[in-house]
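It is worth pausing here to work through a concrete case rather than discussing structure prediction in the abstract. The textbook approach is simple: state the sequence, then state the predicted structure, then interpret. We follow exactly that order.
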Amino acid sequence: MTRSPSFRPSLRHSLRLRLQQARSAFLALGTALATGAALAVNDLPGGPAVNQLNLHPAASKIAEQQAWLHWFMLSVCTVICIAVFGVMFYSILKHRKSVGHKPANFHESVAVEIAWTIVPFIIVVIMGAMATRTVVAMKDTSNADLTIKATGYQWQWGYDYLKGPGEGIAFLSALDASHRVMSDSGKPSGDDYLLKVDNPLVVPVNQKIRIVTTANDVIHAWMVPSLGVKQDAIPGFVRDTWFRAEKTGDFYGQCAELCGKEHAYMPIHVKVVSQDDYAKWVEAKKKELQAKADDPNKVWVLADLVARGEKVYNANCAACHKADGKGAGPIKALDGSQIVLEDPARQIQILLNGAANGAMPAWKQLSDTEIAAVVTYTKNSWSNKTGKVIQPAEIVAARK
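Step two, the predicted structure:
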């Protein structure tokens, strides 16, 4: 086979090009590492730590028991592993055929049979007793000082204070909008990245807090590691857990059940405050909710309803449908949508009940005025200039 005269120069050129590419990649890696160092984060008190290997620092007795149980079980398993594999490898090496050992010829030993039955049984009983003590304590939700219902939505949490100080308070807690912007831009910053919420759950210190969990659409899970709580939230079912925080501070968790495409954007923030500060928060929150209470019979003008709807849209809808209403991927655009432009009844039903087998979640937890406002906003924003106004009374009628 005869090679082309240009073969060697071409080969040298190819190798030179590969070396240049490798050098560029190396420089890019160095730049990325330098940038990563500049964006380094610190430990988040009450949340994850940098290079964390252990459990979160405990802020409740239950969390302390869980941590102790974890290390107890790990220690027992480690000792058993070392003992079993130590004897096995010792026997393999010490009694191998190459050094002249011959296999022994014997039948079962009653003493050995009894020993390797009783000893593991005792170990399992001890481990089970330790675990049972903690599990029983975790399930004892009686005599709670404060009962709060946590409802999982795609993708946020709804909190209703059912019993105790603050009874009647209710609000939604979602990922802070600025963190969603950071995620979309690929430029995360801050120690609490994707853990900051707009409305944290506020509870008093040294009080037994019962958390009742359920869900509106799919299975979620309410988990705060520092407080030692994790409870599934299942549609159509009511389950409960509890905690008693022994110190004030901010404690973070996340939905721990894969619940859809926004699962990573469903954080939990529990703010534990002193009893005096909690009483002040309750008073302020009730005044705030009273001020926000809307008369569903009020007739709004277009400008006011659009302004109100823009806030509702940015807080709840923009994450999927985008601020410009264009949607993304399977998320349908609202700008130019025939349903938005021509079918208000259909749009209202979608907001109240969801659509596409849960891909579009239901928003019936919003007030009548909020739903009317966001519908009106979408009908009069971007290229949608219909001039149509949806009043809260129409939402009231649609709910029936």
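Step three, interpretation. The radius of gyration is 30 Å. The domain at 302-399 is CATH 1.10.760.10 (Cytochrome Bc1 Complex; Chain D, domain 2).
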